[in-house]
Amino acid sequence: MEHLQIHKQLVVCLSTLLVLGLSSSGLSPSFAETMTDESGSPPSVESEPPDVEPPQPSATDSSEEVQGQTETAPPESPSDGTTDLPAEGPPVLPTPAVPTTPPTSEPPSEDSEVDEFPAQVDSGGLVEGPEGGLSAFPGTAAVVGNGFAISGSIRYNNGNYVLRLIDSPGIGILRASVIEAINNINQTGAVTITLAAGTIPAKPAIDVRGELYLEVSAVSPCSAPWAGCGVAKTAREDNLTKAISGRAWVHPLVFDYGPNIRKHVIIHELGHALGLSHFDSQYAGQWQLMNKGRYDSLVLASGDIAGLNYLKHPRPTGNFDSLADTGSSFSVSGWAMDGIHNNAVSVHIYVNGVMKATLPASTSRPDVNRVYGRGANHGFASKLTQAPGRYTVCAYAKHNTTPLSTPIGCKAVVVSNANKTPIGNVEGARGGVETATVSGWALDQNTKASISVHVYVDGRYAGASLAKSSRPDVDRAYKMGAAHGFTVTVKAPAGSRSVCVYAINTPAGQNPLLSCRKVTVLINRVPIGNIESVTTQSRAVAVRGWTLDPDTTASLSVHVYIDGRFSRAISANGNRPDVNRVHTMGALHGYSATIALSPGQHQVCLYAINSPSGTNPLLGCAIRMVPK
Predict the structure, then answer these.
(1) Which residues contact 494 (CB under 8 A, 6 or more apart)?
(2) What residue stretch is flagged as signal peptide (predicted)?
């Protein structure tokens, strides 16, 4: 039998029982299907898909053996160039440069043998059945798994195929049904099949990777009797089994039936050639087209589509966005995600072909989520130490649950000679009321990014700030950008204090002292003032007076309380030259206001509010009878 000559191939066949019955109008088609393995026992149905992620092809790890001959698959290399993800806008799929090392499949697998599976052959046959319609499938089936089953240990397929029709009786008549079948399969988006023009006289002696072959034959390649048969040709790549090509046959008797039956049989057999097995249960309330015993579905159902999506080539995808020298180190950033199953992805970093680091692709990238709708946590970023010199750095998106990886870019970098010490200057220092303020600039000579400055008072840490204010003069002098200025105010106890400023190295290293300055920190004195008048009006009370803070010439706020409850705040900013002549703290310290009140007796109290904080003294209280 022909099927015995197909060495090391997985064969899954549709032997749709063409039940021929005579009706008053002539032949009536009746279909059923049965299947057993070579032992005569029914094959098992996988209730759930395998839990191994579908893999990607390897340029160094694939070979096929057919009919005793060995064929080495050509390498699949990415095209030259890289595509960077813009700072804003959607991420783009990279077309990374071809790295000289490591190979495009990282790490390489030593297993390049073809999978050996026991042949799964449909039995059943062409038998006469009762008159009328389609035969019923016996028994009641339950919902199982995800609605599909995979042939053997296949984990993914080629993804893109060319279907070639073999010159055989009736193949021209079948072309229209083949086109409909292909369109239905392609609509899933999980695989692309292109129908080649014309026919070929025979299948090549060695299957061509990425090609499918369809033939009309009255001689069963699997076992007799039969109506259709499909076979997936497999190879080992990345330690996983890949369906790289396939064949399908249909029996000439399908021409006795309508185009729907022909399309059904063709889709079913091409499903086997792509790596799907039979699924003999209902899923989501439907019988699937890959069911071997019913003819309910004329197109791929939801479980069938899920199976093709499972077999879809799930290359991890991503982009190597940036590479920069940071002085005795370099920084990398980008994004990566699983090609289809949303499993966790890592990024492998290679330096001149040698593995340097493994980074989790888990930082937030909302721009990636806007494009792919797969969540934002797919970014990576890190700084890696490296000796001075010129390097080629390559990044690979790597599945965490399979050996699959995809190159997402290579970039060149020159790591500078040393981690230079930050520089800067303290240009001003002054004491305030229980505060000290210092100002100046600081920068790290290894990066244009702003760095932190730490402030110490009398040897104790008091606070920090990012030196990021604009200093064009610093940029003109050092060509490191303008965002390096700082002004920092920290709390300090009253008295003469030593204030020191340190520039903080990034990412690590020596943190140099920029300068220490002596300042006098003032005690926070209590505001003073006076209530000069509290007069009543119809349903109101008017207050007038002045207040000031001996620590500042700025106007203060006065809080008014009526009967022990806060009523309002008024600003003591009225012009009072008399107050300035006495206290020499400026003239804008007067206040006056009218507060509406209900008739009757009320207590009016005023408080001066300390600036910026501290004790808020009571200026005074008065009791007044407010007339109606």
Answers:
(1) 434, 521, 522, 523, 524
(2) 1-32
Give dist(CA 20, CA 27) in Å, integer. Answer: 7
Average pLDDT score over the chain: 77
Sequence-distant (6+) residues with CB within 8 A of 617 are: 526, 527, 528, 607, 608
27-39 confidence digits (pLDDT tens): 222 322 322 233 3
How big is the chain, counted in residues? Answer: 628
One-letter amino acid at 379 equals G
Closest CA to 357 of 394, 390, 305, 308: 394
Query: To which residue do tokens 């299957």 refer?
Result: 207
Which domains, from first to last, does the chain contain? 2-58+109-311 (3.40.390.10), 317-415 (2.60.40.650), 423-521 (2.60.40.10), 528-626 (2.60.40.10)
Reduce the DSSP state of residue 578 to 3 states and report it: helix
Nearest to 443 by CA among 432, 454, 434, 452: 452
Closest to 52 (Cα-Cα) out of 314, 270, 303 = 314
Q: Could you count the other beta carbons within 10 Å of the beta carbon of residue 271?
A: 32
Ramachandran bin of 495, using left for φ above 0, alpha for ψ from -120 to 50, beta for the remaining angles: left
CA atoms within 13 A on the CB side of 513: 7
Instruction: Quote the pLDDT of residue 210.
Output: 95
CA-CA-CA-CA dihedral for 261, 263, 265, 271, to nearest 10: -150
Say what the pLDDT of residue 239 is.
Answer: 61
> 467 vs 394, 428, 479, 489, 516, CA distance in Å?
33, 14, 16, 13, 17
d(CA 448, CA 468): 11
What percent of the chain stands above pLDDT 70?
A: 72
Angle among Cα 118, 122, 123 to the nearest 5 degrees reads 120
CA–CA gap between residue 344 and residue 360 (Å, rounded)? 8
**Confidence check: pLDDT of 241 > 60:** yes
* CA 72 to chain centroid: 35
- Cα torsion 106, 109, 112, 114: sign: negative
SS3 344: coil
**Cα–Cα nearest to 310, from 277, 335, 284:** 277
Longest dimension (CA), the chain: 125
> Is beta strand 211-216 parallel, antiparallel or unpaired with respect to 240-250?
parallel
Contact between residue 103 and residue 62 where contact means Cβ atoms under 8 Å apart? no
Is a pLDDT exceeding 70 seen at residue 77? no
Range name among 226-240, 381-395, 423-437 with the lowest pLDDT average: 226-240
Confidence of residue 240 (pLDDT cuts 50, 70, 90): confident
Query: What's the angle, vertex CA 59, arms to CA 52 and CA 12, rounded to 5?
Result: 50
Query: What is the spatial distance between Cα 53 and Cα 378, in angstroms, rounded to a whole number?
Result: 18
- Interatomic CA distance for residues 300 and 261, integer angstroms: 13
Q: What distance in Å separates the CA atoms of residue 99 and residue 104, rounded to the nearest whole number? A: 7
Say which residues have a Cβ less than 8 Å from residue 369's Cβ, sequence separation at least 6.
375, 376, 378
Q: In terms of Cα–Cα distance, which of 305, 168, 195 is closest to 249?
A: 168
Quickly tell me which residue has 């300090």 as its tokens. Answer: 492
- H/E stretch holding 199 reads none
Among 295, 162, 134, 307, which residue's Cα sits nearest to residue 228?
295
The C-alpha angle with vertex 118 and arms to 117 and 120, in degrees rounded to 5, equals 110
272-287 in b/e burial notation, b at 16+ Cβ within 10 A? bbbbbbbbbbbbeebb
